[in-house]
């Protein structure tokens, strides 16, 4: 089952403001609308995002052009980004809206918390689990039952060779804020074969957690060797310690999200999340 994308749920008719409008003009736009802020657009290109809170900082300069007081650059999404990834950005950085740009960095839409809620209501996680279950049954000639339970992290067998450090930091932050999506695993005699959730579980391991919620697929024959299992063995993946962590390179969805920000600000986002993660305790 394909993942829902930002392009499917974003609003395409976006209310924008020009960088040549004054602080007072934009203030009136916000007062007379149902929005807390607007994308700043010039000739179709997204330059930034102005909020009511930011306008308050310049309330003593009503005639100043937005261009002269605006914070340049903004977090953004692209139409092909999954709704799950857009949700993570909104959640991590406390945003209400995320502008959407095309490959030329022109504004094509906006996705908000309301759109995310709508997508989650429509999204069927059981459908995803059943899709995985049906595929594995057909590929491996077994029947499987589904149970939900906490599983020991040290018994998880990975099937992905590498994860991104920047995304691990983001997932740690999410876990500390209570966003705890279950893994999808297949029960084996020697542990649990991980099908979905490598960044999630690696983040949990880094936080020192010992167990994690999982949707467990239990085959009627525990001795049948799955294709995923054979690939993991070929790659030398036996425990989570065998998964490589890529540093100095961004996860693809974070690369897209920060492409309009100055490099120093983009690099600072993860540091702020890391500071937050290191500054709080997580219970097991």
What would your notes on this structure say?
The protein has 284 residues and is of the alpha/beta class. It has two domains: 6-120, CBS-domain, CATH 3.10.580.10; 124-246, Alpha-Beta Complex (Conserved hypothetical protein from pyrococcus furiosus pfu- 392566-001, ParB domain). 39% of the residues lie in helices and 22% in strands. The chain contains twelve helices and eleven strands. It has a five-stranded mixed β-sheet with strand order 5-10-8-9-6, sandwiched between helices. Strands 1-2 form a two-stranded antiparallel sheet. Helix 8 (165-176) packs across helix 9 and helix 8 packs across helix 12 (263-278). The model has no long low-confidence stretch (mean pLDDT 90).
């Amino acid at each position: 089952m394909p993942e829902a994308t930002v392009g499917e749920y974003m609003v395409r008719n976006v209310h924008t403001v020009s960088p040549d409008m004054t602080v007072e003009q934009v203030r009136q736009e916000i007062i007379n609308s149902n929005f807390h802020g607007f994308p700043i657009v010039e000739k179709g290109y997204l330059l930034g995002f102005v909020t009511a809170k930011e306008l308050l900082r310049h309330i003593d300069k009503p005639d100043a052009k937005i261009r002269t007081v605006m914070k340049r650059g903004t977090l953004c999404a692209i139409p092909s980004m999954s709704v799950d990834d857009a949700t993570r950005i909104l959640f991590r950085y406390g945003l209400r809206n995320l502008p959407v740009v095309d490959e030329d960095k022109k504004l094509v839409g906006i996705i908000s918390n309301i759109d995310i809620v709508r997508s989650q209501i429509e999204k069927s996680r059981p459908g995803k689990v059943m899709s995985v279950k049906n595929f594995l049954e057909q590929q491996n000639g077994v029947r499987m039952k589904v149970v939900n339970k906490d599983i020991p992290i040290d018994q998880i067998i990975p099937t992905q060779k590498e994860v991104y450090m920047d995304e691990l930091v983001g997932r740690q932050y999410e876990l500390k804020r209570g966003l705890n999506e279950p893994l999808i695993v297949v029960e084996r005699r020697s542990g649990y074969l991980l099908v979905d959730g490598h960044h999630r579980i690696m983040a949990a391991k880094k936080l020192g957690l010992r167990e994690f919620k999982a949707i467990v697929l239990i085959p009627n024959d525990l001795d049948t060797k799955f294709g995923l299992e054979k690939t993991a063995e070929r790659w030398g993946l036996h425990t989570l310690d065998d998964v490589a962590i890529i540093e100095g390179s961004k996860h693809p969805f974070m690369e897209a999200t920060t492409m309009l920000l100055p490099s120093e600000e983009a690099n600072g986002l993860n540091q702020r999340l890391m500071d937050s993660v290191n500054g709080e305790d997580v219970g097991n």
